[in-house]
């Protein structure tokens, strides 16, 4: 079992079953590993000796981040993942560890011998540069303590006929990690966190799914064709006088913006390549915007600490636009729509497998922009990949705008250019 606990906060933040074991019976010593940021890189000082533990009893390792001053990393947080590399278990979900503090991992092993746990930590500098560190921690597990047993006195009785001993119970095998299934049915999401593009490798092929976390505490995987993203008038902002964003309209005009930073009441949309593993995929993933159908321009861009804008996708200057995404990325940016109405965005995602073959997928996404843009259920003229055989419907200008909101509140953020949180159906296309 692996548990990750923040040294500054109560509660268990992470749990991963390595092996089935009895409860711990002693408080183990906690050994610390220091993490620091030097020369724009995460640096860890691993232990020179392996940790030691008794089978069935916990061993603890603390990640000490006190050497990272506040304001060094975006969000003052490091993401940590512990993975059993000797066949004991699959990896954990990444968990946040506060800078200038730390967190403690707790492992329990049922069997004797040398076990290895891989620890991955990653964070982002204030300018959006990703930084990572990785090390392997060996744990020497010795035989469990033998507890003497006190047998009660029993009356002498004739021996009964001997029975065959029960068959020995086999240790439960840890099941191989399986991809969560894709839900069915049409949905409209208009608030909460959603990774709109989350590619997975399923049956050897690349499939792009929506990782829907809009309901707090749950994650539902969906086909993009089954999801309509509602951009309400709560997301209306005034377009600033910024040359990089002039393609969206005139300065001071109203646009609909799904922000890079989370804001209550509106969608917070990102993308994730956390489901793709280096053992299967080499190098970054290529993400392309191939076409846009709608009443106005569309743009995807990031905003840096001092208000500088970096455009990823611009629908007005010729498509396709292409963006490279590293494995293990979970990122957010600003999704901007110049006019209210119904938009269809076509995306293509491709990657190279470790055997040298290329895998790819293409999907269409529907955005309903503005309160007066109605939800329309796709009819029989909608193909399986979400493309319509007829012209997409769109509405006119939305109703009266909400109270004027300076875009600076939604765009000029304290932190990095990309809000990064740092992490399979038969392939439709392979080449």
Automatic annotation (TrEMBL):
- Check the UniProt entry and state the signal peptide residues, or none: 1-26
Give the stretches traversing the membrane.
402-421
Low complexity composition-biased segments: 389-399
Keyword terms of this UniProt record: Membrane, Signal, Transmembrane, Transmembrane helix
**Region Disordered: start and end of each range?**
376-399
Q: Which InterPro entries match?
A: Surface-anchored_actinobac
Q: What is this protein called?
A: Surface-anchored protein
Origin organism of this chain? Lentzea atacamensis
């Amino acid at each position: 079992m692996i548990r990750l606990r923040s040294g500054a906060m109560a509660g268990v933040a992470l749990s991963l079953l390595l092996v089935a074991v009895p409860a711990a019976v002693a408080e183990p010593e906690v050994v610390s590993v220091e993490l620091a940021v030097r020369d724009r890189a995460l640096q860890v000082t691993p232990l020179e000796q392996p940790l030691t533990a008794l089978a069935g009893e916990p061993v603890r390792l603390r990640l000490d981040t006190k050497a990272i001053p506040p304001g060094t990393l975006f969000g003052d947080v490091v993401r940590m993942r512990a993975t059993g590399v000797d066949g004991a278990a699959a990896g954990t979900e990444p968990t946040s560890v506060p800078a200038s503090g730390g967190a403690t991992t707790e492992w329990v092993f049922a069997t004797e011998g040398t076990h290895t746990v891989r620890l991955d930590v990653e964070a982002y500098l204030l300018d959006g540069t990703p930084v990572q560190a990785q090390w392997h921690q060996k744990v020497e597990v010795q035989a469990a303590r033998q507890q003497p047993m006190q047998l009660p006195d029993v009356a002498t009785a004739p021996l009964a006929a001997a029975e065959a001993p029960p068959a020995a119970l086999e240790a439960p095998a840890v099941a191989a990690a399986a991809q969560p299934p894709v839900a069915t049915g049409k949905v409209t999401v208009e608030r909460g966190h959603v990774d709109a593009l989350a590619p997975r490798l399923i049956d050897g092929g690349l499939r792009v799914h929506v990782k829907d976390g809009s309901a707090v505490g749950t994650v539902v995987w969906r086909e993009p064709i089954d999801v309509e993203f509602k951009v309400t008038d709560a997301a209306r902002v005034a377009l600033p006088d910024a040359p990089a964003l002039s393609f969206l309209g005139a300065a001071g005009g109203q646009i609909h913006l799904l922000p890079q930073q989370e804001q209550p009441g509106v969608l917070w949309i990102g993308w994730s390549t956390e489901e793709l593993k280096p053992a299967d995929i080499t190098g970054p993933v290529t993400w392309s915007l191939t076409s846009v159908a709608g009443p106005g321009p569309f743009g995807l861009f990031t905003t840096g600490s001092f208000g500088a804008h970096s455009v990823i996708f611009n629908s007005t200057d010729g498509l396709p636009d292409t963006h490279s995404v590293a494995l293990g990325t979970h990122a957010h940016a600003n999704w901007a729509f110049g006019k209210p109405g119904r938009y269809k965005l076509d995306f293509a995602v491709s990657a190279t497998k470790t055997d040298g073959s290329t895998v790819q997928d293409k999907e269409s996404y529907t955005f309903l922009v503005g309160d007066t843009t109605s939800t329309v259920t796709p009819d029989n003229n909608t193909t399986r990949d979400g493309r319509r055989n007829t012209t997409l419907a769109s509405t006119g200008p939305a109703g009266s705008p909400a109270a004027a909101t300076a875009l600076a509140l939604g765009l000029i953020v304290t932190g990095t250019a990309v809000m990064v949180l740092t992490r399979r159906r038969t392939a439709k296309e392979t080449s």
